[in-house]
Structure prediction request, 1469 residues.
Amino acid sequence: MDKVDVEKNDQDALNAVDQANLHRVATTGLESLQKLTTVLSKRSAASASDGLQESDFELEKVLRRRVDAHEHDGIKDRSVGVVFKDLTVKGIDMSTTSLVTVGEILQAPFRLRQTINDIKNRKLRNLIQNFDGVVRKGEMLLVLGRPGAGCSTFLKTIAGETDAYKGVEGTLSYDGIDQQTIKNRFRGDLLYSPETDVHFPTLNVNQTLSFAADVKAPKVRAGHISRSDYVKDIRDVLATVYGLTHTFHTPVGNDYIRGVSGGERKRVSLAEVMAGRANLVCWDNSTRGLDASTALEYSQTLRTTTNLLKNTAIVAIYQAGENIYQLFDKVTVIYRGRQIYFGPANRAKAYFEQMGYQCPPRQTTAEFLTAVTDPAGRYVKPGFEGRVPTTPDQFVDYWRKSDDYALSLADINAYEADVDGAAALKFLNESAGQERPEHVKRKNSPYVLSFPDQMRVLVRRGFQRQKGDRAYLVTTVMASLIQSLIIGSLFYNIPHTFVGSFSRGGVLFFAMLFFTLNALAEMAMLYPQREIVEKQKRFAFYHPAAEALSFIITAMPIKMVGMTIFCLILYFLANLNRTAGQFFLFLLIVQLVTFTMTAFFQSIASFSATLELANSVAGIGVMTVFIYAGYLIPRPLMHPWFKWLSYLNPVAYGFETLMGNEFHHQQMDCSSVLIPQGAAFDDVPLEYKVCASTGSRAGVDYIIGDNYITDTFNYKWSHAWRNLGIIFAFAAFFVSLYAIGTEISKLAATKGDVLIFRRGYVPEQVEDKTDVPDKVLALPGSGDTTVTTDSEESTMVKNESDDSIDNVDVDIGKVPSRVRSALQMSEVFSWQHVNYTVTLDNGEDRQLLCDVQGYTKPGTLTALMGESGAGKTTLLNTLAQRIDVGVITGDMFVDGKSLTSGFKRRTGYVQQQDLHVAESTVREALRFAALLRQPKSVSVREKYEYVETVIEMLEMESFAEAIVGVPGQGLNVEQRKKLSIGVELASKPSLLLFLDEPTSGLDSQSAWAVVQLLRRLANAGQAILCTIHQPSATLFEQFDKLLLLKKGGKTVYFGEIGRHSSTLIDYFETQGAAKCGEDENPAEYILNCIGAGATASTDRDWYDVWAGSPNFQQLTAEIEELHEELSVLPARQEGELTSKFAVDWFTQARAVSVRTLKQYWRSPSYIMAKGVLCIFAGLFVGFSFWNSQFSIAGVQNLLFGVFLAIVIAAPLMNQIQPRVIQIRELYEVRESASNTYHWSCLMLSVLVAEIPYNVVFSTLFYCCYYWPIHFNRSTGRAGYYYFVYCILYTLFYTTFGLGVTVMVPDAATANILTSMLLSMILSFSGIFQPPALIPHFWKFMYRVSPITYFLQSLLGDVLHGGQVRCKPGEFNVFEPVPGKTCFEYAGEFAAQAGGYLANPNATASCEYCKWTVADQYLESVDISFGYRWRNVGLEIAYILFNTAFIFAGFYWFRVAKWQLPRIGKGKKK
Prediction:
């Protein structure tokens, strides 16, 4: 196609090129771009979206009016081209690597030298090498290559996303401007649109698109319309283009949260990128998950925008139809990181044909070009054997010697001669200046909005996210309400005497403890959003720091509501000082400290790569905050080596202020604790007595509150406002740290597809695969049977006739005899009058399926097609019995008989999402499925042998021992899809195999390989029902039957496809559709006929056409005939297949437990995070209470040392829960629906895996903290402490944490609920409120709290028998009456009270110590050493209760359906 200079403002030239492009579009069947509607022509440019309807929408007209309006208003639209010469990108050579396990971490110290050498000698490899080309403004470049070839690397490099790579060499410029300048100043002009769809799942489509439009709304807008109108117009236009208007109020969702369909989610991603108004966009497999019609419309949209707006599009598409291919100006072909063609798209096919390769009939150009890079998919022309290039280097040599390469270089030189970098940069600056505000904005900022404006938009979105996450909101508020009622009533009406002073300090400390634990729990919320924020940062939507600040702002209102409720109830129930000033200062300090600690934990998370690491660091932080807040260890008693931490602790300043606020000006009566006291001292003047408390003064029966806090804690009321300023400073510091961490942190660097093997299993051919000579094939019918190159391998292709495509089909159909015998089936699955209706949130009923009928027979491959959102996956889930909400009506039969409970076991279901246990190997995943899903009558050896058959059938031998991993570090897209299919095949489905879009995300060759596999399975006797989105003509013709749906789940065709799709095409042509062209893809043809696509329309309702056709009547009669014939046959007597599970429970439990143990063993980061937390926390607590002696303060230190050992359970449970929920989600989404194993096995396996590690790390904690504190070192006492703490308490918190996970939907909610429950049972344990002061109503909670008995066991063990000796400053000093020694005056009292006199013979300043043995303190808190074994029995009972709740709770909250769906008449289960 001829091009014009886009810099010229010659309107005639512009119209000429537009007309040329539109003519080409028209020739490819894009009728929608030729329509001009009256409605649209009357709209103003300022409100182009008013009244838009998808049926009459015309994007080309909208964009042309925009261009005219911008010219009229003097708005300069930016656009750039790109040129690259000798472009090479380097990355770490890690195409394969070995798996790191816990064992290898433990061995690391002994292999340190080898590890260092491996890091030093790590080699770099060229991810892409010596790429040349130019893409001018307004051009579209198609990038073709197989997965792993380097397409994504090339796109990311062009888009400037090169941080993950080790080096970029060569020339890369944009209209003469270097890449760094573009990235710094115009980052939003270059976008890389990734293959994955990452969005905030709780936002609806309207909110997602409106946000994208808002953050990119320019300052100067055509027609001077308001910002809100601009946002609305952009949103409506994009929603109309991509057919999303009906989903405006539907959550976007993700793999685990219900939302829009997969295809609709992809369209949301495309619309979001379009809203970013980038000038050069690199689209990576952007049609993944889209049906053929929508994929074509998307490509049309790109063509239209490049034509009119002069944008530049570089697109990698793995399955591009011929109509899509013809829209592109240029194409580049990549083969293992090497560029083997770059040039005009209409020249590429001829180039490779001249090289000697042959394009099979009905293979699209894009398929052919991709197949050339696949040794198993390319065919050589007769006479070219041995002469064609076969390796990447040979292809590159051929390319660089070709005339096409010379023309490409000439094109590059001409482009470089035409562009003026300085002028282009000046124009870009002027254009950017128009759209970006001048105030409060850095000169080189790439963002359209200023930081305050970004905050405005982000805060609004933050509140929308809060509203969408109702479970978390309700949990947060209810936790505050419940906890305040419980704690307030526990500390109910604390007396204003000295007796209540300890309780007052306890309730004040607890107020901050509770919200600090909540802040710790909220870290789990930050990690799911990281990938989203990182993506939108690349899109130049906003600063991540602005998102961090907005997250804090939007979270605070609900926190403030919760804290206000908490403080109101707690403050007045506890009878704290009831003056307005003191209450509001209490409220202010609690909220400010909570805000500060939330920012503290968020800053930790922002600098931590994983949640496990963050929890470890935060766990140590929690211990620091608690110990050095001044309550557990008063500042005067802190050891000097850690005392400085109290000055860095914001909670310490908050606690001092609260204590000063509460005790200032207080005069606490202490007459009940005077020393000496008793009947003998009633007549002794007060001047010879003293209160038994710090802060007391001789001769008075009250204690001044200020004296109490000064003598006990070294606190002063005069510090209150100073402390407030310090807390504000801490808050500002942590918020700044959080913002900085969020701004600079990046996701883990991408290394490309890294295949990870178990150590010792890395195969040589994978490690050095580039050195293996490639093979080529002769096209069947070419006259040759075998063609080889230098390879020793050869491929046999039979030459049975001159019809090459028939021979290909025959070859596809060859099946090993053992596979054929394993897949012999005889039953027919049918469904009739299937309807499915759901009730939306607004109460409206929406019908998703409408009177669908059909059947599958053994040996048939049935395609289920329709546009995105037509109900394909819904129908598949309905037929597979995977729907648990809504109303389903209709009949489903197997051989004319109702479905049995074993139906799920007899079917396989390959989900669209490839969800697997990341730590398993391919062989282990297949063996697991075979072991648990094949009947128990089949021996384990036979099951494993069948797994090997599946591996061979799927050609997975080379990566059978590879770890599944995660995308980028594990199996690639094709390998994952093969594994998903293999898992279902390994279960040996005896009835039917369902597949949901098995070719989505694959390149054309991989998709062809998958369909070949399905064809072989069908030929072997397997019945298959498969949804498919973008089949090529050759791929589509491998199917036997087609079930075609339109929007609303309505059938428009069911029947045979026919040879060359003739039967299908004849039906539509007979019913009045346009003729199907000889070169037209039948799959695209039928979708065009029924008006599939976002903006497509049709002149008839094809559902009504189908319902009135003879084909429909024939199908109905055929199904009823099948029912009559088959229903009289005797039922299959296979008792094994009627049970829900294939094997017994013990086999399930053993297999799941072994798998989970391997998961943990192969997750060293998770396990080591536990170890780091326990070791560092143990050392920290141990040395904070170093060498605690049996003094008054020493007993208190021993008490709180035990208490902190209990509190460490909070961060440890926070670590457990996200991982367990991840394991649970995989089970619920995939394994539960397949009846792989009973849910109880899952929870048992987690217990079996968690407990050993937790016991080991509790042991390390015990060793690190028990001995430094100098607890009792006798064998019996130390052994008892170890048994209770390391065994029983570890079992308790493990089961407690798991019990919480079964009740909640996500990790953040689990952490919050755990914090509330743990705080509650801690508060009733007698630590904060002595048992004697607990209100009578709550006495039962003191006895019910499990922590009560753990504390009794541990405290009784460490304190029993300890001889207390007061240290100076701990004695109560009083004067004896004149003429008596201290012993004569108070000796009898001391003996009766249980204390002792330090100076019995003194006649002045008698020193009295209130305890002689620590058991006296134990008695005061209702603890007896004699209860130790009783307590063990109770602790075991609590562990058993927790364990029972794990299983009962999982059933109640996750299995049982308390609100059963309405079952319509005729529903068969």
Observations:
- The longest helix spans residues 1239-1269.
- The first strand starts at residue 82 and ends at 92.
- The radius of gyration is 37 Å.
- Confidence is low (pLDDT under 50) at residues 1-56, 765-776, 778-814, 1460-1469.
